[in-house]
Amino acid sequence: MGGKRKKNDSDSDGEPEKQAAKDYEKKETKRQLLPSMIKNKEKRSEVHAKLKQEKKLEKRKKSKARDAAIKRALELGEEPPARQIPRTIENTRETDETVCMPDDEELFAGNDADEFSMILKRERTPKILITCCRFHSTRGPAFISELLDVIPNAHYYKRGTYDLKKIVEYANNKDFTSIIVVHTNRREPDALLMMNLPTGPTAHFKLSNLVLRKDIKNHGNPTSHEPELILNNFTTRLGHRVGRLMQSLFPQEPNFRGRRVVTFHNQRDFIFFRHHRYIFETKETKQIESKGKKTKDAKEQKVSQEKVIARLQECGPRFTLKLISLQHGTFDTKGGEFEWVHKPEMDTSRRRFFL
Questions:
Q1: Which of 120, 232, 239, 283 has the most C-beta neighbours closer than 10 Å?
Q2: What pLDDT does residue 333 have?
Q3: What is the pTM of this model?
Q4: Using H for helix, E for strand and C for coil, what is the string for the chain?
């Protein structure tokens, strides 16, 4: 006959432990309840505001503890704790074998023999031909006129009905060093083609976020002085080559009296173009120093200190470039060999960059 099973002592001891574990799990699930899991709108917003306030208080608490640790270390004459570096997409990028190192002798040897070496060694003066596509809009010529102000020794020629190969042949005969073609679509410039002459390479860029000088608030007017050039974050072999192509558009003897700066800043494979003027000014700051002990009758004295500050004024235009392809030689759609072409299947990760 089957009877009821008697409870052992071990079973009776294990039941409270199981119950405690279940209670702990319930508490954890309540704690991990996300606002997106709540269907009621008012309750969801209430929980969200509460979580946001808790995070804010925790962040403030950590900041105060960090400041107290630094202050304590300075008072004791010790080294303060190392400053925390935030994790960003840039400093967590995927490792790339083509990143240029400062002691890369092969890279420096290649620089001495590449297509841009004559201009960058000041053996040849840059001379730029700027043209447009066959059907251009009103903003196209306005953009080209501002490019003529940015790039010294640049000349504009109407495209007309000429093929690009004929224009390359004409530019070679007239001793031009580079060609820039501004392409427009739907009355808006949307692409740039940069060609180094006579042997290439040719870079095709997508152009976006164009802001002309007249649309920039408190803009300045550029002078005719030759500008200084800043190239940022072109770290890989491909980026180094694109940077040298852009560098070859400008003379290598900047006139510092003009205080003009042209910047190509690469961030996440987007090249941001900016054009500024700068000025140094001396600013007086007054600090109050009290003589004697801190009492009501203590005399206060104002001490003025001079501080040199730099101010910037944007001259325009402002735009963003994204490299689409880099081709050997001058522009050739049929038989041209490409050094690098961007394809959609290459975008496998947000932390993978090519420049």
A1: 239
A2: 73
A3: 0.76
A4: CCCCCCCCHHHHHHHHHHHHHHHHHHHHHHHCCCHHHCCCHHHHHHHHHHHHHHHHHHHHHHHHHHHHHHHHHHHHCCCCCCCCCCCCCCCCCCCCCCECCCCCHHHHHHHHHCCCHHHHCCCCCCCEEEEECCCCCCHHHHHHHHHHHHCCCEEECCCCCCCHHHHHHHHHHCCCCEEEEEEEECCEEEEEEEEECCCCCEEEEEEEEEECHHHCCCCCCCCCCCCEEEEECCCEHHHHHHHHHHHCCCCCCCCHHHCEEEEEEEECCEEEEEEEEEEEEEEEEEEEEECCCCCCCCCEEEEEEEEEEEEEEECCCEEEEEEEEEECCCCCCCCCCEEEECCHHHCCCCCCCCC
